[in-house]
Amino acid sequence: MDGKTLLEREQDHPQDIVVERDRGRICTMDSARYVDARNTGRDVVVPASYVGVLPARMMAIHRPRGVIGHDACVGKDGAGIAGLWYLEALGIPAATADGMTAEMGNGEDLYTNGIVKHVNYVAETCGVKPGMPVREAAEILLANDPTDVEVGNKVRREIMETHPSGRRVVVTDSIVWAYPEDENRSVLVTAGHTGRSGAKFLLEASPWGFICHDGGMSKNRSGVSGLVTADEAGLAGACIDGTTAPVGDAFLGYEHGLISAHNEAAAKRGVEVGMTVKEAAHRLLLGGE
User: Does residue 268 fall inside a structural domain?
Assistant: First the structure.
C-alpha cells in the first residue's frame, strides 16, 4: 500500500460519456468518487451516489458544470440530499433523482430511468424542475448557464390566487420580501417562523393576512407567539405545521402544509387547525365573505 486513501490515489476512474457537445459532456458514473479533473468546468456529471455533504465535497473540488445524483430516499435529517445546498453555495447546479426511480451505484440506470425530485436554486435557474427525467435535466444543465448565482439574493415570489377586489395570495419564502404593494392587499404565505421577531416584520408589512411557519412550536410556543401580537393589531394570521412542511420553503408549505395554529382574527375568516394551507390562504383572502 502507498499510504494514500482511496480518494487520494490517482487513477482512471470509470466514466461513461453519453453526450458530447462543444460546450462539454454528460458523463455517467457509479460513484461520486469517480468525478475528477477531467470534468472540471465542462461536464455535467451523473453519479449514482447520494448527494450528501460528503460526496458534494468530493465533487466540488473538481468544479463540474453540473451534478445530478441519487437522493438515497432522503433519509434521516435529509442527509441524502444535504449536499445540494453545499453545492448551491458554491454556485454549482445540482439535483437528485427520486430513490425509487433509479438504482444506487448504477449510473446508467440513474441516467436512463431516474426522475428528478430535488433541485438546488442554481439548477433551478438553469431550468431544471422536479418531475423531469434525469436525461432531460442533464441536457438542460449542459445547454444552460445559471442565470443568477448570487444565491444569497434569491427572491422566490409567485401570485397563486387573485380576488375580484384585486387582493391576492402571494407565496414567498420570507416576510422580509414583502413589497409595499402587499400592504392591506396580499395574503402572504411565507416560511419564516411566527415568533417575536417575525411579528415585528409582519406588522411592518401590514398585509391583508398571513400564513408563516410555526418553527416546530419551540420552547414556550415561541414559534407562534407572534400570532397574539398580530391579533392585537387586527392582523389575521396562521401557522404552517412544521411536521407537514419545512421551514424556509413557502412553496412546499403552500402545496403540502397543514395549519397548526391561528389567531382570533383568522378564526373569524374561517381558518381552522388541520386545514390545508392552500384552503386557509383562500379563506383569509375572502376575508369572511
Answer: yes
Count of structural domains, the chain: 2
Cell representation of residue 17: 460519456
Q: In what order do the strands lie in the sheet with 157-162?
A: 157-162, 168-172, 186-193, 209-213, 237-240, 259-262
Kindly report, residue by residue over 173-218, the tens digit of the pLDDT.
Answer: 999 899 999 999 999 999 999 998 888 999 999 999 999 999 999 9
pTM exceeds cut of 0.85: no
Cell representation of residue 205: 408589512
Contact 206, 188 (CB under 8 A): no
Which residue range(s) make up the domain with 226?
A: 157-286
Closest CA to 67 of 163, 158, 146: 146
Residue 257 in any domain: the answer is: yes
Q: Do 218 and 134 sit in the same domain of this protein?
A: no
pLDDT tens-digit series, residues 26-66: 999 999 999 999 999 999 999 999 999 999 999 999 999 99
Residue 1 lies in a domain: no
Distance CA 187, CA 270 (A): 14
Rounded-to-integer distance, Cα 248 and Cα 267, Å = 25
Is residue 35 within 8 Å of 62, Cβ to Cβ?
Answer: yes
Residue pLDDT, tens place only, 14-27 = 899 999 999 999 99
Cα–Cα dist 270/264, whole Å: 10
